[in-house]
Structure formats: structure tokens, C-alpha cells
Fold:
Amino acid sequence: MSHKSTLLLVSALLIASPAAADSLSAALASAYDQNPDLAAQRASLRQTDEAVPLALSGGRPTLGTQLSANQAGLDFADNGRTFQAALQFSQSLYQGGRVGTAVSAAENRILAARARLRATENTVVLNVVTAYADVLRYARTVELNQGQVAVLDRELQQSRDRFDVGDLTRTDVAQSQAALATAQSNLVVAENQLAAARQAYQRVVGRPAVDLEPLPPLPVLPGTEGQASDIAQANSPALLAARFDEAAARYDVKTQEKARLPSVSATANAAYSKYQGGGAGSSFVRQGDFFTQSGTITATVPLYQGGLYGTQIRQAQQRRSQLLETITSVSRQTQESVVNSWNQLRAARAIINANQIAVDANALAAEGVKQENQVGSRTIIELLTAEQTLLTSKVNLASAQRDEQVAAYALLAAAGAAEAVALGVPVNPYDSTANAKRVRAKWGDAGDADPAAQPRPDAERATKSVIIGPVQ
Structure:
């Protein structure tokens, strides 16, 4: 065989080989890298990171220049021109401590944003597990319904054959036809549910659901409901974010209170001026250039601002009161989520055990009814009922297995433990602190590289819809 023929054969084998099965761990890793909700929350965190350098800028020096040209006139006659270039340096010396409290508030808001990033990751992980389990569940449901359609199709044919020889009545044939039509309808519903589950998987994972592996064993869970609640109260990212928000609000109150204190600033100016004398008849004919310098220290003591500071302080205090109540509300929501998830997990496990017993028993019963029907001691309707009961128990078992997985990860998400690194998912962890360290040390006025522009939509679509079909 030639080298070219060998390459063609290898290429054909690669094309013909099935796609590698996708595991839950691989799906979680893909979502960690590609999920747009997670990426958007990371961008939101980087936006919040700028709050610290923004607060620090209030205590940093400023430097500016000014260029001017002035044309003087007297009785509509040229009286000379002055050109000036000035440089101004300003530095705040004391602001009553407002810069320090503003920085502390910003730092706590960054911590709150990092906690919200964790909360988003927990939600994404739960969504991936739910989508993954739903695809497996509905794929199993489709498989069971396809089998049911095939069985009922054969039984309908057998009923017709037995009717032809006088062994069954037309009623028996009609019952078989009705059961087959119902099974075909159920199959269409299951296929639609599977298609929707695949779309949900595509949305959260970022790639199609192809040949998914069975669900892996559950991760380590809290041993008791009380233990889960204790972990959640200390580790829930939503609750942590609420607490950091309240801490930031405490510093906001202090910042507003310090606005009533004196402030001191220093300003230095240097200017170069050039004067050009006016024309004939001007009262000034001298020309020349000169430098001017000045330095100023200004102390400002607010005595009364029309109630402005009092209003701002009270507003900040009520904002903090609101956030204190938010902490209580989020704490209760967290407790509710933990308890509900724990109960759903316990119920799912009980339903799995019950349905496993039901599947075994209904399989035995269906086989017995089938054999008895063949000898005439059972009717067609009894056979159809036994087979439908067996199908229902198998579908219920698949649903309960899905519910166990989702409830387990919902419990972890409520406790703040449904995160890629905590679950051992092979990912390159996102460092939520790196950008804050980078921008805190920046003194320049240049921004970062701007993302590429997206295609601009048609302006007409903002006011008019696309017309589908002929105008009504």
C-alpha cells in the first residue's frame, strides 16, 4: 500500500470514528472557560476593582497646563496681545480622613464582588449539572418510549393476526391501536423534552451534548442538615456579599461624617507670558516676556452648607440600615435553600429505592400477564396496562436519579461549595485578586486595550420588526 493510500485510510477511520464521550467533569471545565454569565461577572468584578484607585486618586497630586492668547483693544484700536503658557500643580494635604475611609469602602465592595463571582460560579455549576442530568434523563425516556412503541406495534400486529383467526375481538384490536397511538404521542413529547435539554446544555456548557457518559458518583456532601446549614451560614457567597456590602456602607457613613472636617490643599503655579505691543496709537507700546510663579496653601473649614452634609450622612445611614436587613433576608433564604435541597435529596433517594423495587416487580408482573394473555387467561387491556405500568416505573426511576444529582448539587450550591476547584474539576483557576493588585498601583491615565467592536445592528430594527410572510 502506498503512503498516500495509508493517509487516506487513516483519515477515513478518523472521520468514521465516533466522537469522544463527554463527561460531567469535562462539561464543567468547558463551562468554567466559556460560560458568558461567568465571564460577564468576572468583567463586573474587574470594573469594581477600579473603585480603589478611584478613591486613592482623591489624595494624589494633579498636574495641568493652560495655554491662552489675549487680544486687548482700546477704542477699537489694537492695544497689544498677550500669550501665556502656565503649569499648575495641586496636592491635597488633608481631607479629614475621607480618602482612607473611601478606600476602605471600596475594598469591601471588591470583596463583595468577589463573593458574587463565587455565587455566579455556583449557579453555573448547578446549571451544568442540571442540563447534563436532564439530557441523560430524557435520552433514557426517549429510549424507553421507543421500546414501548416497538413492543406495542408488534402486539398490534399480533392482535390483528389473532382477530383474523377469531381468537380476539375488534375491541381488543382497537385497544391495541389506542395504546400504540398514545405511546407514539408520548415518544414525541419525550423527544421534544430531549431537544430542549440539549439546547439548555449547549447554552450553559458552550458545546453540543454528544454521547454523554453516565453520571458519576456524587461528591462528598455534608453529613447532616445541621452541618450543611452551619457551612452555608459561614460560606454562602450570597451571604458573604451582603455582609461585605454592609461593611462598605459603614465606611460610607464615616466618609460623609468626615466631610464636615477642615481640608487643606497646596497649589503651585508657574507661567510664561509674552506681550506684543499694539499698533500705532496704542497707549502701550512696550514688548517683552516674563515668568511668574506663585504658591498657595488653602485651608477650608465648612461651617454651614445648607443642611447638605446632614442629608448625605442620614442617607448613608439609612442605606446601611437597608443592607443590615438584607443580611437577615439573605441568611433566611440561604437556610431555606439548604433545608429544601436536603429534603429534596432525601426524597429523591427514597423514590429511587421505591422505583427500583417497582421496576423489578412490574417487570415480573408484565411478563406474567403476557404469558397468561397468550393462553387466554388475561385480556389485552390487562396486558397493555401492565406494560404501561412498567414503562412508568422505569421513567420515574430515571427522573428520580436525575433529581438526586440536582438536589445534591443544589445543596452544595446553597452552601457555596459547588465550585470547580472545590469539586476537583481540572481547570486553570481564575485569579480574582490579580486585577485589583494591578490597577491599585496604576497612577497613569491610560486605559486597557478595548474589546473588539461588535457588528452594529441595522438601525431600522430598533423601531421596526422584520415582517415574516405577507403583510396582514
Notes: Confidence is low (pLDDT under 50) at residues 1-19. The CA atoms of residues 136 and 298 lie 72 Å apart. The beta strands are 62-74, 77-94, 263-276, 288-300. The longest strand covers residues 77-94.
